[in-house]
Every structure is written in structure tokens, then in C-alpha cells.
Give the backbone structure.
Amino acid sequence: MELPLLSFFILCMFFAAPSCGTYYTPPSVPRLTDLVPNVSIDQCFAKIFGAANIQLMSNGSSLNLTLNKHSGAGLVSRSKYHYGFFSASIKLPSGFTSGVVVAFYLSNADVYTHSHDEIDIELLGHDKRKDWVIQTNMYANGSVKTGREEKFYLWFDPSVKYHDYTIIWNKYHTVFLVDNVPIRELRNSEAFYPSKPMSVFVTIWDGSEWATHGGKYPVDYKYAPYVASFEEMEINGSVSPPIATVPSSSKTNVSSPDTVEGPEFIKLSQEQIDAMDWARRKLMFYSYCEDTSRYKVLPPECK
């Protein structure tokens, strides 16, 4: 065995990092995604850019978004939501994906240019190790200059099959989940909490300037096209007026705020808390709450 390869295996054994091809079996958790029906992507979303790179399939219930040298692609929900349950089952591009960003997020930047709210799930292609990572981020209460990012390795290969990426946002807390495992929770506080109605966005785009090691590894289009596949989209929340016109036969799953205030959604169970602790101990490799170079005084929610 050559020395560099031997060194690689030693490092993998020492750090037990998912980036070395080591994947974990997550703790058992309730499957909240089973409680919410799917929506029609075609009827609940509109194209916002890269129309030629958007492919709807299965009567509008599944979707491919493509990034190539000409463009990325994106959809936006036809309605804005004030709290809700938002989930998508996604299969990511395989191979060398440096600089590629696949995002499933909420935002109202189109309405509140300088004081918008945002709740982000951003899946970031990585360097030559071919690992995707998940970055969660939030903006609220006019705090839009400095993000509140946390980054995690995944405990599986997200390019092999579909996995669920979920946001729960209500007046009690905001929770990010992967395959129903909570990885991050922000409890509501007056100091920092998204509070204004937001649209849902689904996108793939070129994040070469920042996504992979601060832009060290840009998108290499000789590996294009990059295709992200979506299915089993779930949106269940309170629609904020004006409500987009949707055919009465469609399953929009629009509901009263009570839907996201049921016992399963307003508070994490001990089982979920333990699973979140597992994810954060084993898989989180960056948190803004530990980045004193960016925050000389840590934000209040970090304490």
C-alpha cells in the first residue's frame, strides 16, 4: 500500500469522518413527513428562472432541475406562507460537484428588500472527496448582513437515492430535519426570529464564489449537466393573502395555523432531542455560535 493511501486510511480511522466514506445509522425518530400529504409541484409552484432546465414529470408530482454552463433553474411557490411544514424529497447530482448549490428555502426578500426573513436549507457540492454537506441558515428582524450558518456532513450518500429535507416553522420554534432527524432548532424569541410571510423556493445554481471552501473549488462544467431530482413535496401551512388561484381539484394542503401547532410540531420529544444531539455531536463541523472571528459578541440565541 502506498504511503499517501495508508495515511488517508489512518486519518479516516482517527476522525471517523463521513467524508472518508464512513456513514452512520441515525437514531430512531417519529416520521413527521408521514403526517403531511404531498402537493402537486406543477400547481403549487411557478418557474422563476432557467425554464429550459426545468423538467416536470409524473403529472407534476416530480421534478428535475439542471445546472449547466448556460443557467441554473428555480421555482417559487404561488402562495406565501405564515408558518407551516415544508418538505422535499431530493436526490442530488453524483460525482464531482464542487460549487454546485441545491437549495430548498423560505424567503420574503422580494417584498422586504432590506429587512427580509429567510430560512435556508442549502446543499453544497464539495471538493475532490465528492461529499455533499448541508448548510442551514436564517435571517430575521432586519439582520441580513451576517448569516447564522451551521454546516453538517450527511450520514448517507445523498446522490444514491431520495432523502427528505424538512423545515418546521411556527410561532414556537423553527426546526431543520433530514430524514425526520432534527439537526437544528431555533426557539422563538423577540431578539431574532423569522416572523413575516414567506414564499418557498426550490433552486439549483452556481455558487462558485463561496459554496466550496470559500470559492476555492468552483463548478467544473466538464462534469455537467448537474441534475437535482425532487419528489414528494409537502407544504402544509397558513397561506398569507393574496392567495394564488389554484384549481379546486389540486391538493394544496393549505390549512389554518393549527396544523403546525399540533403536539408533534410545537415541541421536540425527548427522542427527537436525543437524535438532534447525536447529529450535532457527530456531524456538525461549523456553527456561527463558535465563530468569534465573525461575531465579537455572540448573538443572544447562542447563549
The radius of gyration is 19 Å. Helices lie at 3-15, 41-44, 263-266, 270-283. The longest strand covers residues 226-240.
